[in-house]
Design a protein that fits this description.
One of its GO terms (molecular function) is hydro-lyase activity. Belongs to the enoyl-CoA hydratase/isomerase family. With 258 residues, the chain is α/β, with parallel strands linked by helices. The chain contains eleven helices and ten strands.
Length: 258
């Protein structure tokens, strides 16, 4: 039986693919565990960027697999939710830049996967929703806490309390979607973006992500000081000296991640 999640990588870019098109790529305990394991594997490999994509043309991820959670004992349901949160937290804190390639439905847990990704490339068919209220629940993977930072508290409350989807165009206007592309081209556009990122110094990419993530809970003055400390540290790396020398001599830099 084939795995529901695949991983591959080259020197700089990893690709994690959820492959359950007949189930609209719905999330199960196994899927969440495999995503986490592949993220760990790609951290060990040391890629600079990761693309999170899915198969089929109907859904990115349509949410949790309700057949799995239906009738779960309380403790199993709690474990399921904590497991999903662990995977989402890892995406946000992963040293690589994570790019979600979204086409079709990104509902519930799928919306949360996009939400914790660093960049969201969506095609025009994409829809984003957090419809858990229609099941008598609220999101358990972070949407109530993270969505307001992205779309604003009022829009977040509307989405969370109505459960209605927003289009890719509206998601772009809200700041949820980073790049909006033609239907059927999200994966290719995500690959182009990842390639663009990997042309830069890996340590600088990692620190840029980390600094932005930490800014949410850091006072401005503290954050500015931390930013300068990171800049001073990076200045002493071989990559920075290579980048400056390449710029002065009008050539392409060759970064080594040190």
């Amino acid at each position: 039986m084939s795995s529901p999640v695949h991983v591959e990588w080259d020197e700089n870019v990893g690709v994690i693919t959820i492959d359950r098109p007949d189930q609209l790529n719905a999330l199960t305990t196994e899927v969440n565990n495999l995503i986490f394991d592949h993220l760990t594997q790609l951290e060990e490999v040391g890629v600079t960027a990761i693309i999170l994509e899915t198969t089929g043309d109907r859904a990115f991820v349509a949410g949790a697999d309700l057949k799995e959670i239906h009738g779960m004992p309380d403790r199993e349901f709690e474990a399921y939710q904590k497991n999903a949160r662990k995977t989402n937290d890892y995406i946000r804190e992963h040293p690589a830049l994570v790019v979600a390639a979204v086409d079709g439905l990104a509902y519930g847990g799928g919306c949360e996967l996009a939400l914790v990704s660093d960049v969201v490339v969506a095609d025009e068919s994409a829809e984003f929703a957090v419809p858990e209220v229609k099941l008598g629940l609220v999101p358990g993977g972070g949407a109530t806490q993270r969505l307001p930072d992205v779309v604003g508290p009022k829009k977040a409350k509307e989405m969370l309390t109505t459960g209605k989807p927003i289009s890719a165009t509206e998601a772009k206007e809200c700041g949820f979607v980073t790049r909006l592309v033609e239907t059927g081209s999200a994966n290719e556009a995500a690959q182009d973006l990842a390639t663009e990122v990997t042309k830069n110094a890996p340590l600088a990419v990692q620190e840029a992500k980390r600094l932005v993530n930490s800014s949410r809970n850091t006072p401005m003055e503290t954050g500015l000081s931390y930013e300068q400390e990171v800049t001073f540290t990076l200045y002493n790396t071989e990559d920075t000296q290579e980048g400056i020398d390449a710029f002065i001599n009008d050539r392409e830099p060759s970064f080594e991640g040190r």
